[in-house]
Specification:
CATH architecture of the largest domain: 3-Layer(aba) Sandwich
Number of domains: 4
CATH class of the largest domain: Alpha Beta
CATH topology of the largest domain: Rossmann fold
């Protein structure tokens, strides 16, 4: 049944971006969505789920599937803005058709094309979208966390403006992902997106990289455009901007303010219309206080500020991201792993994730390399993740000394308590001595010392 309808719809709709087939109960039997990075239709992991589970905002009243099942009539060219199971915001124009078998209504098929708020239909019923492929968009940011959803709304609001944006957060929180989304949703989306990690190259080389060079400015120098000019009409993303030398920060500030700069060794100013998006992995106020970031540059770069929360502050996203990466590596490695075990899921939730989303992604990839079954088990994930809680639990709780108690008395009380607990858990003094790694005579001496002979 599915094959017949897919062939029919493929002939009817050239350029469909998404197809979904559901049975009469709303259970998804087939689902595929176009991916620019995969350059083709991919399974998003929705098969077997209810439509209302795949798109939690929908109800039986608002879902086009259930409306078609009630009326038997198609719903055509309906605009929809939905948040899917993975927390991605998508905008579609959809048509939903009834499926019949022997005169009986057995389900629906929905075909969709993507659209964006400021886009228009072209002559082939395709919505004109961002032609700059390969960059992340807001719908690629996977989250259910309220703080992250608010940040996505902020990006949507400020993307169209030319103001500089400063993004800060721990390593692996997705700063470049947000920077690319800012560009993709902006009026500059057809222009270049240039990214440079300021900590990756020495200061002397960074200056010529940013501003360009003129022939003869130094031995071997040629006429070469800098990144500020290469990004003309687009966005320049400066990561770890706080690692930039302070003297170079002054030159960057001048270039941003005046929208012009002078290449290394040049005699003429070069004009450039570029939006600056910068990032750092420390609180910018701390960077200013520690002398790593000029205060005046901070004021200019931080017109709009986005503070990304670490993964440990958004635990509701850990299962969501885990499932997302399982689906990604299933496609990439041609596997059919269905998910992770309950023990693994609990271990992932208990871990602090100092490397944030990047570390979680790498942990799932590591598990795919070791997993031999259909479910990722505890033995498949990196050992430090599930040993983390055991080691933390094994550490004695840090306690402040009571008033008037010195170190010697505190040590004496701790030793006495440890001996008492070990004796209670042992059948003989010899067994207790073995557990404490003491000789029997040494343990007996300590028992006499602490009056434990009885």
């Amino acid at each position: 049944m599915i094959g017949k309808w897919l062939n029919y719809m493929a002939r009817l709709h050239d350029g469909v971006d998404a197809i979904l087939i559901a049975d009469r109960h709303g259970i998804i039997e087939y689902s595929a969505m176009f991916s620019e990075r995969e350059n083709g239709m991919i399974d998003e992991g929705f098969i077997g789920k209810s439509i209302l589970e795949a798109y939690p905002e929908l109800t039986e009243e608002t879902s086009s599937h259930f409306r078609v099942m009630r009326t038997g009539k198609p719903v055509l060219n309906e605009k929809q803005e939905l948040t899917d199971f993975y927390g991605r915001r998508i905008m579609l124009v959809s048509s939903t058709f009834p499926l019949e078998d022997g005169g009986e209504l057995i389900g629906t098929m929905e075909t969709s094309v993507f659209y964006h708020k400021d886009s228009q239909l072209d002559g082939k019923n395709h919505w004109l979208t961002n032609s700059h492929t390969g960059l992340f968009r807001l719908e690629d940011i996977i989250t259910r966390n309220s703080e992250m959803l608010a940040l996505k709304d902020t990006v949507q609001r400020v993307a169209a403006n030319p103001s500089p944006v400063l993004i800060w957060g721990e390593t692996g929180t997705g700063k470049e992902l947000f920077a690319q989304a800012l560009h993709s949703h902006s009026t500059r989306s057809k222009g270049p997106f240039i990214s440079q990690n300021c900590a990756a190259i020495p200061t002397t080389l960074l200056e010529s990289t940013l501003f360009g060079t003129t022939r003869g400015s130094y031995t071997g120098a040629e006429n070469r455009k800098g990144l500020l000019k290469q990004a003309d009409g687009g966005t320049l993303f400066l990561d770890e901007v706080n690692s930039m030398d302070l003297s170079l920060q002054a030159k960057i500030l001048k270039a941003i303010e005046e929208k012009k700069f002078r290449p290394v060794g040049g005699e003429q100013d070069v004009h450039s219309d570029v939006r600056i998006v910068s990032a750092m992995n420390v609180d910018p106020i701390t960077a200013v206080r520690d002398g790593l970031l000029r205060r005046d540059l901070f004021y200019r770069l931080g017109v709009v500020q986005l503070a990304l929360p670490p993964l440990r502050k958004r635990p509701e996203d850990i299962p969501l991201l885990t499932d997302f990466y399982v689906e990604r590596y299933n496609r990439k490695m041609e596997r059919t792993i269905t998910g992770v075990s309950e023990l693994v899921r609990n271990a992932l939730l208990a871990y602090d994730w100092p490397g944030n989303v990047r570390e979680l992604r790498n942990a799932v990839e590591s598990a795919f390399n070791l997993c031999t079954g259909s479910v990722i088990q505890l033995s498949d994930i990196p050992r430090y993740i599930f040993y983390h809680e055991e080691e933390k639990a094994a550490e004695p709780a840090a306690e402040a000394l009571p008033d008037g108690m010195g170190l010697q008395e505190a040590v004496r009380r701790y030793e006495k308590g440890l001996i008492v607990r070990t004796l209670e858990q042992s059948r003989t003094i010899t067994e207790a001595a073995e557990k404490l790694k003491l000789t029997r005579q040494a343990l007996q001496y300590k028992m006499m010392k602490y009056h434990l002979n009885s």
